[in-house]
Write a structure and sequence with these properties.
single chain; mainly beta
Length: 214
């Protein structure tokens, strides 16, 4: 099996009807981290209309970030609403959140995006915490990103169960994320729970719980 064939099978598992490219929906994520209040987020993504909204409630404080085509709006720390354009530096954090959530919840389909570079023609077999996985490693063209990612797939179902990244490809940097459970969001099989750990020393960071959506 080639890396391309493995990716095709993984995408067929997670997006069997080929719906990601026209995804339009919302979902709730609860982030639980040690010694911090839970963060409740509602994420809305509409790929066709280039719309993104992140509404957050943490410890009774609410905020939002929104992109509509080339317009950007967000709530500042003092509660005021800032309106600007996507290319303005004031919108950098909102763009970062849009890219972050679209990437993570669009995997493995996002591995078809321009600028993604598979580092090997064939997958490797890796034993991680007592289970063997088929893995694909990718890097990115400079304008897209500098991290190196590895994706772990069940060798029988091709379900994505772990991903891991190294900052600039350097050992003992970055994090790995364990994916458990599954939620069907707009016909796409998304991992339900994502537990984050540092690669170095396996330090637990927190878990994102996908609570469903529309």
């Amino acid at each position: 099996m080639t890396s391309e064939q493995l990716l095709n099978r993984a995408i067929a598992y997670h997006d069997p009807q080929g719906l990601w490219s026209t995804f339009a929906g919302d979902f709730k994520v609860v982030m639980k981290t040690p010694n911090r209040p839970d963060r409740h987020s509602i994420i809305t993504i509409d790929l066709v209309n280039n719309y993104f909204n992140l509404s957050v409630d943490r410890n009774g404080k609410t905020s939002f970030r929104e992109i509509t085509n080339q317009q950007c709006r967000y709530q500042d720390t003092d509660g005021s609403i800032i309106t600007t354009v996507v290319t303005d530096s004031l919108c950098e954090r909102t763009v970062m959140y849009r890219n972050y959530y679209t990437y993570l919840y669009g995997l493995p389909m996002k591995l078809r995006d321009p600028g993604t570079i598979m580092t090997s023609d064939h997958p490797t077999t890796v034993n991680f915490q007592g289970k063997e996985y088929l893995t694909i490693s990718v890097s990115y063209s400079p304008e897209v990103g500098t991290d190196v990612w590895q994706f772990y797939f069940d060798p029988e179902t091709y379900r994505m169960e772990i991903y891991q990244f190294l900052k600039h490809g350097e050992p003992n940097t970055g994090e790995y994320i364990l994916l458990t459970g599954e939620a069907n969001i707009q016909g796409i099989r998304m991992p339900r729970d994502r537990a984050w750990y540092y690669n170095k020393d396996n330090i637990y960071l927190g878990t994102d719980y996908l609570m469903g959506g529309g």
